[in-house]
Amino acid sequence: QVQLVESGGGLVQAGGSLRLSCAASGRTFSTYVMGWFRQAPGKEREFVATITANGRGIYYADSVKDRFTISRDNAKNTVYLQMNSLKPEDTAVYYCAATITQYSDRYYNTAAPYKYWGQGTQVTVSS
Fold first, then answer.
1. Which residues of 53-70 are buried (b: 16+ CB within 10 A; e: fewer)?
2. Do 23 and 80 form a contact (C-beta atoms < 8 A)?
3. CA distances from 100 to 8, 30, 51, 103 (A)
4. Alpha-carbon torsion 20, 36, 79, 22, what sign?
5. Which residues contact residue 4 at a Cβ distance below 8 angstroms, ignoring those fewer than 6 apart?
6. CB contact set of 75 (below 8 Å; sequence gap of 6+)
7. Cβ of 6: how many Cβ atoms within 10 Å?
């Protein structure tokens, strides 16, 4: 069982920045594909970013490309989401997700492959 704990959410003005962290349990973090998703009120959960187990492959949703950066530190069992130039439409609960893979260079930009999910952290961007 993998447990994921997000942190770093909060209230920020438009144009500001936040960095989310997701700490994962387990001794095989280097085999986890990691992803970030978000869900705004009244909307479905949507993909934000994903990173391969080896950290060399990254993919972003078009809505956050060039503003958000996903990264991971396998020594700390942690994945990060640096969010810059935040907009009110980025307001949502942000979820960290993980799934174990035998393929170090694979990532997933849909929710279905992810087996483990965090509880979420609220990000609110004021205009």
1. bebeeeebbeebeeebeb
2. no
3. 24, 9, 12, 9
4. positive
5. 22, 23, 24, 25, 96, 97, 98, 116, 117, 118
6. none
7. 22
**Given this model, what pLDDT does residue 53 score?**
95
**26 secondary structure, DSSP code:** S
Residue keyed to tokens 């992810």: 114
How does pLDDT run across 23-46, given as a tens digit for each residue? 999 889 999 999 999 999 999 999
Q: Map tokens 């993980």 to a residue.
A: 98
Location of structure tokens 């391969």: 52
Q: Residue 79's closest CA among 3, 23, 5?
A: 23
* Identity of the amino acid at 48: V
54: its two tokens = 């080896």
Residue 116 CB-half CA count within 13 A? 19
What is the per-residue pLDDT across 77-94, written as a single tens digit (0 to 9) for each? 999 999 999 999 999 999
Q: Residue 71 and residue 50: Cα distance in Å, rounded?
A: 9
